[in-house]
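Bench notes, afternoon.
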Amino acid sequence: MNSFQFPDRFFVTGTDTNVGKTVVSAMLTLGLEGTYWKPVQSGLEPMTDTDYVRSVTQLDETHFLPERFRLTQPLSPHRSAELDGVEIHLADFQFPKVLPTYPLIVEGAGGLLVPLNKTDLIIDLIQHLSLPVCLVARTQLGTINHTLLSIRQLQQANIPILGVIMNGELNPSNREAIAHYGQVPILGELEPLTVVTPSTLKSAFKKLFGS
C-alpha cells in the first residue's frame, strides 16, 4: 500500500490491448469515487467498456460520461471509424464544463500508437487533453520491452507519467526492471481477481492505495 495522490484528471492507457486497463480503470473509478470516460469505443458487443465498468462497479449514472465516438467494429479506431463512415478529429474531444465527481478517469483505446485517423494517434489525444498518464502493463514475459517502449514514447512527447500499474501474477523481477530502466514509479500491482465485483475492486484498491 502507498499514499499516492491521484490528480483531478488523468488518462489510463496500456502497453497493448487486453492488458487489463479497463479493470484497472474500474478499480480506480470506484476507489476514488470518480467519473469514468471512454472517449472512443471500438466495438459494441457483447458490451462496451463503459457498460462493463458500470456493471462491475455498480456506480450510478452520475459517475459516467458518454463516449464521444461509439464505433461498431472491434478494430483500431481509425479503421472502425472508416467502416462506420465517421471521421475522428482531435477537436471533437472536449471536457464537460462541470463534472459531478472527481477525479476524471479517461480510458484510452489500445496502446499509445493506436491510430484515430490518418494523422493522429492515441498519444496525440492525450496531448490534446493535456493529461498525465497512468500506464497499465502486464506482468508476464515481454512486458519489460513493451512498457519501456511506451514510457519512452510518453517521455519524448513530454507527457507526465504518474507511474505504472502492473496487472497480473506478481513478478518482482519485471517490476524491478521496469522501475529501474524506465525510471518511473510502480504505483501498484493488481493481482488477478477471481471475480470482478464492487467488493473485490474496493479491496484491491485499498490494498494498493489505502482508503
